[in-house]
Each structure stands twice: as C-alpha cells, then as structure tokens.
Amino acid sequence: MLLATPFVSRKPTPMEDAMNSLYLLIPIAVIFVTVAIAIFFWAVDNNQFDDLEGPAHSILFDEPEKSMTEPDNPINKTGERSPR
Questions:
Q1: Rounded Cα–Cα distance for residues 69 and 79 (Å)
Q2: Structural contact between residues 82 and 74, judged by C-beta atoms closer than 8 angstroms
Q3: Half-sphere exposure for 14 (CA within 13 Å, toward CB)
Q4: Residue of 24, 23, 27 whose CA lies nearest to 35
Q5: How far is residue 78 from each of residues 17, 65, 68, 70, measured CA to CA in Å?
Q6: How far apart are CA 18 and CA 12, in angstroms?
Q7: Residues near 69 by Cβ (< 8 Å), separated by ≥ 6?
Q8: Do 55 and 61 form a contact (C-beta atoms < 8 A)?
Q9: pLDDT band at residue 26 under the 50/70/90 scheme
Q10: Mean pLDDT (the chain, rounded)
C-alpha cells in the first residue's frame, strides 16, 4: 500500500524566480507604455509641440519697458513723486 507523501516545499531555481518576476514586470511595463503613449497623444492634441523655437528665442529679447508715467509707478520722469 502506498502512503501519500506530504507536500514538500522546495526552493525555486533561479530560472523559476526570473519567470515569476516577469509575470509581474510585463503587465507593469505594458501599463507604463500605455500611459506614456496616452500622455504623448494628449500633448499633441493640446498643441504642446506647435512652437518649439518660440520660447527659446523669447529669452533673448527684452520685455518692453513700462513708461514712467503709468499709475502704478509713484515716481515720474523728473524723479518727483506724482500727486495721488
């Protein structure tokens, strides 16, 4: 008569460990790529790539200066305080 042998746990081989980790890593990679592609198409649809050189060139030019007679500047061109 054969007796049932108890379940014996064995240590997985390095190849089995690698395969087990792939079962987790492949779905994570697929999700990551899907999110990256969705973000790329969102950026294209929202015109994020329309003017790639404009911001690079705009740093080279000064902003127009405000005139000294604007209401937010209390000192006029002569250096005196303007009456309020």
A1: 11
A2: yes
A3: 0
A4: 27
A5: 81, 17, 10, 14
A6: 10
A7: 76, 77, 82
A8: no
A9: very high
A10: 78
Place of tokens 């999700």: 31
Alpha-carbon distance of 42 to 45, in angstroms, equals: 5
Residue entry with tokens 């054969």: 2
Which conformational region is residue 79 in: left (phi greater than 0), alpha (psi within -120 to 50 degrees), or beta? left
Task: For residue 13, give both structure tokens.
Answer: 């081989």
User: 3-state SS string over the chain?
Assistant: CCCCCCCCCCCCCHHHHHHHHHHHHHHHHHHHHHHHHHHHHHHHHCCCCCCCCHHHHHCCCCCCCCCCCCCCCCECCCCCECCC
